[in-house]
């Protein structure tokens, strides 16, 4: 297990930061995009976002589904972030559920906060992640995956037992009904929530992209490649991972809070491993990067609509099959499909 | 007080006995294939379901009920032999050659997780969502009164039975040719391949053996529990806790850890019911904080 390799206090700040920059330069040059495709990507992204913003007008009754896609995408983004460090969490439902329950518990206390409560959901997710993370980030691989699962299962059973606080298996009603200090009707609130959520997705997406391109973000890829090397550079892998874990907890909590406000109800199932499955599927299906998980969430939603119509009893079989197919044939997820195809065609031509 | 302590300990030993069978299978698969089989709990659940179904079939066919005992073992072997090779060959084997190695671990976790999802839902389709009970099989061997509390002989027999399985497994691994090959593959697959060990065959074999052990645990436990959807998910986390406490790949350690978990769990049920579901994980947490590789695990070398 990795020992604490944090830089000593004697080490000057300049030296430290130059090491980190060296780390940023050496880690995974494969991900550096070319300038021209970068511009293309930005314009494509703007088009997609504009299209998303128009969605509630194109199909008003589906605003709820669109909001859920964004919420699940945000939480899936948290799982995908850890995936960059080569770690998979089977227990992110913990943060998702915490976010939802936080909103449910605080909404009657601060009725005028309205949509601001979403930030509390994210905040509690981050705090829980910071506490659990102190323990969890010391582990890698199977331990990381299973300890996450174990903690979320414990939270689930504790929640079921503490009927007085959490409503047990009945769950709780979420009464978020407006913007800050201003109540809205159900339809208007649904639309407002969607736009608030879309706005947060953009803000959080940009922030997250900045983080991914910072030395700390590059460090995540380096943890996957060769962890011990970055410790020789004087950077603590565990500390990098803890940062990522807290960010990921925030995203999970925020996503859960949005979903709870949209649905108007939280239930212990939000903590159950089936919810973690959704987040894993979304992250794996979408692939790495900031856009991937939202793509994954949209695909997941489409898949679940199709499945509800044709195979309502074998939903998880379908999910399992999708995961198997994606990791077998499109390892970088749907967002990475162009790269996967390019690599495959290159190899084919060489043969 | 003392009576309660005694009977809690006996309860713990019996549940630890089936837990050991499942966990040692998980440990074996990890030792040889380096894969943490998330679908392991599903093997346990399928074994339990099949046992309950066979029990009701026995009743319906008018056959002597005592046939259930050899039946349980046959069921476990059948389940493992049918499921194990198919899953290992068709769904898992391709992942052994994934490079780089750091990526392989995530992919294998996801693969077994996907198999777990498929099997969990498959159980719903095949067995329905109603719980199965085969409690009748519990009383056939009579009961014994220990410290004032009746225990079924069946459950008491589970303890020596698991001991026998442990002994057979140890004898197989250290005395037979294929057992030694298995250990060689667990140590270093490449080197053992150069020595003429059929690595692929060993991998399939150990996965199947692990599946048989998990199904055996499920089949033996089924008379004592209500067999419902969801026992597989609980079991995989619990058996992982056992294996993590023991150290991955440690067979005798797994026995010690399952007794520890089983007894600690039943003691909390008796004396501190508020902690009953959490106690295995608390123990795991404590052990991992002090010894990250588990009680009997060895520190692995880190390569640069």
What can you tell me about this protein's structure?
The complex is a heterodimer of chains A (351) and B (304). Chain A is an all-alpha fold. Chain A has one domain (55-350). In chain A, 72% of the residues lie in helices and 2% in strands. In chain A, helix 5 runs antiparallel to helix 10 (237-263). The longest helix of chain A is centred in the middle third of the chain and has 27 residues, at 186-212. Chain A is globular and about 60 Å long. The termini of chain A are far apart. Chain B is mainly α and 304 residues long. Chain B has a domain at 18-130 and 138-227. Chain B has helices at residues 2-33, 40-61, 68-92, 101-127, 136-139, 153-175, 177-187, 189-194, 199-221, 231-246, 251-271, 279-290, and strands at residues 143-146, 149-152. In chain B, strands 1-2 form a two-stranded antiparallel sheet. In chain B, a hairpin with a 2-residue loop joins strand 1 and strand 2 (149-152). In chain B, helix 1 (2-33) packs across helix 10, helix 2 (40-61) runs antiparallel to helix 3 and helix 3 packs antiparallel against helix 9. Chain B is globular. Chain B starts with a helix and ends in a 14-residue tail after the last helix. The model of chain B has no long low-confidence stretch (mean pLDDT 88). Classes of the chains: A mainly alpha (351), B mainly alpha (304).
Descriptive keywords:
heterodimer; A: 351 residues; mainly alpha; two-stranded antiparallel ribbon; 14 helices; globular; B: mainly alpha; 3% strand
What is the topological layout?
The complex is a heterodimer of chains A (351) and B (304).
Chain A: H1 13-26, H2 35-58, H3 63-83, H4 93-106, H5 117-136, H6 141-161, H7 163-166, E1 172-173, E2 178-179, E3 182-183, H8 186-212, H9 215-232, H10 237-263, E4 265-266, H11 273-286, H12 292-310, H13 315-329, H14 337-350
Antiparallel strand pairs in A: 1-4, 2-3
Helix pairs in contact in A: 1-9, 3-8, 3-10, 3-11, 3-12, 4-5, 4-10, 5-10, 9-10, 11-12
Chain B: H1 2-33, H2 40-61, H3 68-92, H4 101-127, H5 136-139, E1 143-146, E2 149-152, H6 153-175, H7 177-187, H8 189-194, H9 199-221, H10 231-246, H11 251-271, H12 279-290
Antiparallel strand pairs in B: 1-2
